[in-house]
Amino acid sequence: MELLEVNNISFEERGIPVIQPLSFGQQMGQKLALVGESGAGKSTILQLIMGMIQLSGGEIRVAGSRVRGPEEALVPGPVGAAYLSQKSDLPKFLRVEQVLGYASKRPVAEAHSLYKLCRIDHLLGRRTDQLSGGEQQRVALARLLLGQPQLLLLDEPFSNLDRVHKRQMQAIIEEVGIRLGVTCLLVSHEATDVLGWADELLVLRQGHLVQRDAPERIYKEPVDEYTAALLGDYTLVRGADRYALAPGLAGDGVLLVRPEQVRLGPTATGEPLGTVQAVRFLGSYYELEVQLAITLLRARATQPNFEVGQQVSVRVAPEARWLLPELR
């Protein structure tokens, strides 16, 4: 069943287009993420779905019912949807248990199970102004879930979190979908944060939908350099270097190579040579910069087998041989 239908929507602010005509749908239980640079229109789309701002054109439906904006409804917003903004907006100076008690539509046992899921059961006696940013966010999420929404909209839920709390929030969102059966639509400017979570990514740029597909497909076959950059490090290889790394590859254009697709080894006859310019330890791997004839290629290695100034042979894995059109 299609829970969310976004049909040819557009939005203008002071006569300036913010969202170009845009359509997509989301099935019940599908994990969908909107990704793009800051200002791409991601948060605006969530606010349009919630009826917080008025559409300039098109229509949005949640569970079959049309979403009405502030010009049409005294209390806008679709029934069965909840929105977690970047600010928790919790009432100040109240204990967490008071804030949650006012919002709860669940039996006591269910509510306490939800508090454990959100990792806040130890915070119930604290005042909201005594919580860290990550704790406030988890309390705000629990408050929304107490209302038993079908659709949960998450606006940059990882943006202000350190690595430990980001991992914790990612695990909670995963469990919300599995254990509570809530369908989640998530917005992130850091696409790598949702690669392992989303069933599909929608890549946005300046209010346009650039690409929609499974994360792995977009990572390996981005439609343009903008999309490639959102999902991770890469090198664009042109000219003589491109033909050396991918001999016999038909077509003109630019070879897009991810660092993990580069194979380095001892110098070998007939293989392209490069000179190691930098070696950086990044925890689980080493990042290397290798100078080819005209291209500075980024590569990865799991062992410290290379040093600055060393000459190495360079090969590219077959899956890297994907061409972007020649960039002007």
Please describe the structure with a list of short key phrases separated by commas or semicolons.
328 residues, alpha+beta, Rossmann fold, OB fold (Dihydrolipoamide Acetyltransferase, E2P), 2 domains, six-stranded mixed beta sheet, five-stranded antiparallel beta sheet, 8 helices
What's the structural blueprint in terms of helices and strands?
Blueprint: E1 2-13, E2 16-27, E3 32-35, H1 42-49, E4 57-62, E5 65-66, E6 81-84, H2 96-103, H3 108-117, H4 133-145, E7 151-155, H5 163-180, E8 183-188, E9 200-205, E10 208-213, H6 215-220, H7 225-230, E11 235-237, H8 239-245, E12 254-257, E13 262-265, E14 273-281, E15 286-291, E16 296-301, E17 311-316, E18 322-324
Parallel strand pairs: 3-8, 3-9, 6-7, 7-8
Antiparallel strand pairs: 1-2, 1-4, 4-5, 9-10, 11-12, 12-18, 13-17, 14-15, 14-17, 15-16
Helix pairs in contact: 2-4
The sequence of SSEs as H and E is EEEHEEEHHHEHEEEHHEHEEEEEEE
Low-confidence segments, given as residue ranges, are none
Strand residues, percent: 25-35%
- Assembly type of the chains comes to single chain
